[in-house]
Design a protein that fits this description.
Blueprint (H helix, E strand, L loop, with lengths): L1 H6 L1 H9 L4 H16 L3 E5 L5 H9 L4 E6 L2 H8 L8 E5 L5 H5 L7 E7 L10 H11 E12 L5 H23 L3 H12 L3 H10 L2 E8 L8 E8 L1
Parallel strand pairs: 1-2, 1-4, 2-3, 4-5
Antiparallel strand pairs: 5-7, 6-7
Helix pairs in contact: 3-4, 8-9
Keywords: Membrane, Methyltransferase, Transferase, Transmembrane, Transmembrane helix, Ubiquinone
Pfam family, one: Ubie_methyltran
InterPro entries: SAM-dependent_MTases_sf (IPR029063)
Length: about 230
């Protein structure tokens, strides 16, 4: 699957930039982390091309950030952008890999972690284990924000998602990439994603306490969800 993201990396920013609210919702999630944790060190898990990394720095310009993504192409694009010297680093590796997540400063736990649009890309049987691994990287009381799509339990959201993907996203990917595989996977993965109640149950099993659930707004109402949790 990471190969699909690598193949689409060179046009990824263009396509997500066409999504109304995409960057605003990342800013909102990062802002909640900054307010709740006042983080000095942040893990950006599933960082992609660095959009979530930039959101973290807008919310917490004092923080150091380590971005991790499974796609080599996404990490390459993220590294090519301009970042504050010595403040941001990126690594290619799987979510849940302790060594990749910790980096060279592994003896220092993170204060917060943003995992935007990551959980749905982790196989269901691995999700709780990945969340537990994230918890091992956080200090006690450290904050985790999970932001992702799910249409489970909402016929309206399922219909909106189907229409947006097949009338806008997938045709646009055909025009810009000449390849629709990544965005057909996106359509399918959201339709198959478990509901937010299951996220919260996994978080508790992994050693977190969910403290808030925030819905998306606009056309992403009942589709986008952000769960804030703290490490026990």
């Amino acid at each position: 699957m990471s190969d699909l993201f690598t193949a689409g990396a060179h046009r990824y920013d263009l396509l997500v930039g066409a999504n109304p609210g995409y960057h605003r919702h990342l800013d909102t999630a990062a802002g909640r982390l900054a307010r709740d944790a006042r983080p000095q060190r942040v893990l950006d898990l599933g960082c992609g091309t660095g959009a979530s990394t930039a959101a973290i720095l807008r919310a917490a310009p004092w923080a150091s950030v380590r971005g991790v993504d499974a796609s080599a192409g996404m990490v390459e694009r993220a590294r090519a952008k301009q970042w504050p010297p010595g403040q941001v680093e990126f690594a290619q590796g799987m979510a849940g890999d302790a060594e990749v997540m910790a980096g060279e400063e592994g003896e220092r736990p993170y204060d917060a972690c943003l995992a935007a649009y990551l959980l749905r890309n982790v196989p269901p049987h691995d999700r709780t284990a990945v969340l537990r691994s994230v918890g091992e990287q956080l200090r006690e009381g450290g904050a985790l924000a999970i932001q992702d799509y799910s249409v489970a339990g909402s016929r309206r959201a399922a219909l909106v998602w189907h229409l947006v993907c097949w009338l806008v996203v997938i045709p646009l990917s055909a025009l810009t990439l000449g390849d629709t595989r990544l965005y057909r996977y996106l359509w399918r993965s959201v339709r198959e994603m478990e509901d937010v109640g299951s996220w919260r149950a996994r978080l508790r099993e992994a050693g977190f306490e969910p403290v808030a659930v925030h819905p998306g707004s606009g056309w992403q109402r009942d589709l986008l969800h952000t769960v804030i949790a703290v490490r026990r």
